[in-house]
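ARCHIVE CARD
CATEGORY: sequence design from structure
SOURCE FIELD: tokenized fold
FIELD CONTENT:
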């Protein structure tokens, strides 16, 4: 079953379920998909619902695979944790209703590429009309993105606005304790864009990501509150990031010494372990990605655990025998 056919089926399924739940508190145009679920595709009132198609074999496997890999949504499944006024204006807007015909992730990403020039929540000069960006963000939330889709958005090469809407999806509607895992890789990202309607007011993706992590106020709306324990951890990570940036600058002097087999110390952390220093062995140095980073990365192996990681240069501690001797080329 093709991806577009799969998505069309899911939309029809959402419509069928909505037929039985209209009038029970759902906002106009939004179709509940069951208790605790996110909202499905938008359909005009009075739409004719077709009989649910029967899927067998590979079609059912494809559908189950998509559901297994969806990023779980968190919080309010009516507003997706947005300001209620903004959420209602989005649902009522003609532009959002016009997106009903789009049933795949790729269609929405193409629309972002062609239509988005900022990521403000409101159209320029008004707090009555929702922006194109937030309408498309909401459309993506109704489609429910998979991990692979999100990875594609966050690293997209064609438009920083595709990337920014991906970050907003994570920031607005996923569980707060998982947000940093998505953002960490991009805090140093140097791609520039204009987040507001003023094309002269530019900032890097990295600085903008830091802003939406640490400031609930977002261009005349409010982002969801991050629970205090999670907020403290994110701020601690950002302090460590500043240290890593300084260390990366120092390490650049000796980067030519980072040859395969060199024993170093490196920082590792994950969702179960706070960042800490561990013995590591250098595999190779990876050149910086043009336009997105000033520093190379270093692939290392942690002998104690056997795992291999590609780390920012600032997460590497070069042996004092090299740094104190003025090595480097």
């Amino acid at each position: 079953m093709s991806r577009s056919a799969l998505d069309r089926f899911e939309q029809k399924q959402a419509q069928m379920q909505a037929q039985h739940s209209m009038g029970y508190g759902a906002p106009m145009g939004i179709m509940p998909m069951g208790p605790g679920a996110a909202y499905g595709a938008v359909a005009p009132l009075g739409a004719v619902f077709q009989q649910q198609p029967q899927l067998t074999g590979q079609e059912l496997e494809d559908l189950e695979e998509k559901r297994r890999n969806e990023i779980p949504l968190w919080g309010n499944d009516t507003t997706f944790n947005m300001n209620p006024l903004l959420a209602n204006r989005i649902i009522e807007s003609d532009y959002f209703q016009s997106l009903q015909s789009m049933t795949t992730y790729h269609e929405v990403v193409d629309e972002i590429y062609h239509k988005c020039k900022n990521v403000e929540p409101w159209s320029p000069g008004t707090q009555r009309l929702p922006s194109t960006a937030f309408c498309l963000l909401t459309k993506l939330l109704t489609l429910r993105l998979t991990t692979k889709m999100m990875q594609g958005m966050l690293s997209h090469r064609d438009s920083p606005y595709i990337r920014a809407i991906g970050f907003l999806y994570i920031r607005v509607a996923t569980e707060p304790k998982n947000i940093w895992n998505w953002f960490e890789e991009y805090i140093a990202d140097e791609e520039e864009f204009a987040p507001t309607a003023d094309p002269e007011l530019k900032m890097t993706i990295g600085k903008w990501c830091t802003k939406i992590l640490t400031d609930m106020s977002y261009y005349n709306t409010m982002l969801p509150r991050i629970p205090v324990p999670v907020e403290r951890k994110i701020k601690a990570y950002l302090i460590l990031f500043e240290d890593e940036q300084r260390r990366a600058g120092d390490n650049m002097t000796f980067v030519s010494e980072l040859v395969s087999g060199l024993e170093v110390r490196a920082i590792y952390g994950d969702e179960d372990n706070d960042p800490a220093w561990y013995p590591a062995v250098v595999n190779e140095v990876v050149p910086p990605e043009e336009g997105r980073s000033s520093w190379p990365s270093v692939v290392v192996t942690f002998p104690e655990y056997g795992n291999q990681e590609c780390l920012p240069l600032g997460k590497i501690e070069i042996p004092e025998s090299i740094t104190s001797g003025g090595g480097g080329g």
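CARD ANNOTATION: The first strand starts at residue 192 and ends at 193. The first helix runs from residue 3 to 19.
SHELF: design records, drawer C
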